[in-house]
């Protein structure tokens, strides 16, 4: 599921290569007004985003990491500010956020995982205009790799408040040969990104639930729990099952992930399944 990433990547294609913001400190407090002003100026130029959408270190890092055009405008990587006291950030003893382990290769089947639609019940989206309505992800295997090497078609669906489908750029993916449970997702017409960015941390096909995050995790201050730049709780059934959602949340907590950032997704009054 890469609903947020689709809009970030698409918007980055429309942004001029250089976004100038003048002199900024080598490391700044991501929650400080100065950072909010910086991001407001950035989002005003990007177009898809609106001012005030990046109040935290985690959400800001998600935007800054997805394209060179946007990254060039960011004053510092979020990891350095959040974890390294020497850099002038809040710091927590210099302990970085390690990405939690994904499902073991021997326990993961991509054919099974992509065999049916996944409905998003809760998520950490990349952008504020994410409606949180009727969101699902579907994956289709190509018969042969694309010209750029992709092997999977990614179909994301989201509806607005009136029930209309929100268009999304065409995304493709490729499975990581070593981990099996990690994918690299990108815009189909662009080269495959260098690093995996879709990690399946938990998948139980018997009950129909999965926990997926992006690869980047950050901290919002001393002693804080790690927060992923994006995260999704998937279920096979569209109707919300509180037990399954609680199960996925519990697994996230056990892996050291802050679940307080998860947002509810409304899966009622949606368009009929195609």
Short characterization:
Helices cover 22% and strands 19% of the residues.
The portion of residues assigned to helices is 10-25%
Helix-strand makeup class:
alpha+beta
Q: Would you report the number of β strands?
A: 11
Order of helices and strands: HHHHHHEEEEEEEEEEHE
Q: Work out the strand percent.
A: 15-25%
CATH fold-level name of the largest domain: Lipocalin
Largest beta sheet: what is the strand line-up? Answer: 1-2-3-4-5-6-7-10
Question: How many H/I helical runs?
Answer: 7
How many strands, which pairing sense, and closed or not: the largest β-sheet? 8 strands, antiparallel, barrel
CATH architectural type of the largest domain: Beta Barrel
Unreliable parts:
3-32, 45-94
What does this structure look like?
With 274 residues, the protein is an alpha+beta fold. It folds into two domains: 3-87, no CATH class; 105-264, Beta Barrel (Lipocalin), CATH 2.40.128. The protein has helices at 3-12, 33-46, 57-64, 68-71, 78-83, 110-113, 242-254, and strands at 118-124, 136-141, 152-157, 171-175, 182-187, 198-204, 209-213, 217-218, 227-228, 231-235, 263-264. The strands form two sheets. Strands 1-2-3-4-5-6-7-10 form an eight-stranded antiparallel beta barrel. A two-stranded antiparallel ribbon has the order 8-9. A hairpin with a 4-residue loop joins strand 6 and strand 7. The longest helix is centred in the first third of the chain and has 14 residues, at 33-46. It is globular, with a radius of gyration of 18 Å. It starts with a helix and ends in a 10-residue tail after the last strand.
